[in-house]
Amino acid sequence: MVTVDDVEAALENVIDPELGLSFPELGLIYGISVDGGHVHVTFTLTSPGCPIGPQVIEQIDEFVSELEGVESVESEMTFTPPWTAERMSEDAKFALGY
User: Fold this and answer.
1) Taking every annotated instance into account, which residue ranges of this chain make up the domain MIP18 family-like (predicted)?
2) Model's pTM, two decimal places?
């Protein structure tokens, strides 16, 4: 059975094309829930005007669907609460000079 940790590891492949870092590293993944083979991922973007939303949804679906036991993937984009740099991992902050 797929776990939240499995999904988070798969999401490491979802890369912000401008920053070159993964969505989990950037703190853009707000939530992951797994109910049997059904996975729900809540994410945000660095700004509401960012045009990569559809691309991110496709990548989340692609990488999470590859996990054994996943039957469906639902992605939800939210801007509440707004993303801030404080959500980034220490490694991401270092890489971006924060």
Assistant:
1) 5-74
2) 0.92
Residue reference for tokens 């999904």: 7
Q: How confident is the model at residue 18 (pLDDT cuts 50, 70, 90)?
A: confident
Counting other chains too, the contacts that 47-50 makes at CB distance below 8 Å and 24 or more residues apart are 47/83, 48/79
Q: Which residues is 44 bridged to in the sheet?
A: none
Nearest to 16 by CA among 42, 51, 41: 51
Q: Determine how β-strand 29-35 pairs with β-strand 72-77.
A: unpaired
Q: Kindly list the structural domains of the chain, giving each domain's residue range(s) and its CATH number in brackets, ordered by start.
A: 4-96 (3.30.300.130)
